[in-house]
TrEMBL record:
Listed name of the protein: Spermidine/putrescine ABC transporter permease
Ranges for domain ABC transmembrane type-1: 63-250
SUPFAM superfamilies xref list: MetI-like
Similarity section: Belongs to the binding-protein-dependent transport system permease family. CysTW subfamily.
Location(s) in or outside the cell: Cell membrane
Location, primary (coarse class): membrane
Membrane topology, from the record: Multi-pass membrane protein
Length: 263
């Protein structure tokens, strides 16, 4: 690669970095503005909007509600996605392609169409809008990501380890619990964090299937109807910092777990 191509690629890279991070930086800065309105210049700074978030009972309750939904939907998605991955990987049977296609389909359907379909299906099943309906929709949407990640990890599992366990008298369940499951833990943990963040940030399905208690994205949307204010920036910044911290921790922990598994 010559110098000209390196310069072009470097310019493209930094342009992309600016495109991604400049809006985030501006959003964070506006949360410190000592004014009820968003806009430049920022003549004075304050932490009142951030302290107000932690003193707002509605925001804290909504944060806990969104976290509970994310955790429960992730548990369901991980259980179902891992089971499907183990069922499909390395096996050939009639209907395998159809099962795989149906598994990844929720990830391919546009969010608004998926939300409308879930709403119609929930009404047909008699499921009332609320926490249960949101967990159900988020779990179905997240299953494909778990299945694909676990299948990719499972494809690298040395078959000799399973065969050795079977030769030593382990039945399929014991072999899975002692050999396959520990080997899959990095993939399961990584997909769990990804699903957790997806569910926490999901707006469309939460909006269509939610009841009287809003999730955090729905609450932010409701506050936007009365106009932009630094309070919204403060809430969004706190959510951004929390999700980023979880993602960074999960990435480092997954790497460490992956090294321990390969050792």
């Amino acid at each position: 690669m010559n110098r000209r191509n390196r310069i072009v690629l470097s310019c493209v890279y930094w342009a992309f970095v600016l495109y991604v991070f400049v809006p985030l930086i501006l959003m964070i800065l506006m949360g410190f503005k000592d004014s009820k309105f968003i806009g430049f210049p920022i003549r004075s700074w304050t932490l009142d909007w951030y302290t107000g978030v932690f003193e707002d009972a509605e925001v804290l309750a909504t944060l806990g509600y969104s976290t509970a939904i994310a955790v429960l939907s992730t548990i369901v998605a991980v259980a179902v996605g891992t089971w499907i991955a183990v069922l499909l990987e390395g096996r050939k049977f009639i209907g395998r392609t159809a099962i795989f296609g149906l598994t990844v389909l929720p990830a391919l359907v546009p969010g608004i169409i998926s939300a409308i379909a879930f709403r119609i299906y929930a009404r047909w099943l008699g499921i009332e809008p609320g926490m249960g309906a949101i967990i159900w929709a988020h779990a179905v949407h997240n299953v494909p990501f778990v299945a694909l990640v676990v299948m990719a990890r499972l494809s690298t599992l040395p078959k000799s380890q399973i065969e050795a366990a079977r030769d030593l008298g382990a039945d399929p369940i014991v072999a899975f619990l002692r050999i396959t499951l520990p080997y899959l833990m990095p993939a399961i943990l990584g997909s769990s964090i990804f699903c957790l963040l997806l569910s926490f940030d999901d707006f469309v399905r939460s909006f269509f299937l939610g009841g009287y208690d809003p999730t955090l994205p729905v609450l932010i949307f409701a506050k936007l109807k009365s106009g932009m204010s630094p309070e919204i920036n403060a809430i969004a910044t706190i959510a951004l910092v929390v999700t980023a911290a979880i993602g960074i921790w999960a990435e480092r922990f997954t790497r460490r777990l992956n090294k321990d598994t390969q050792a």
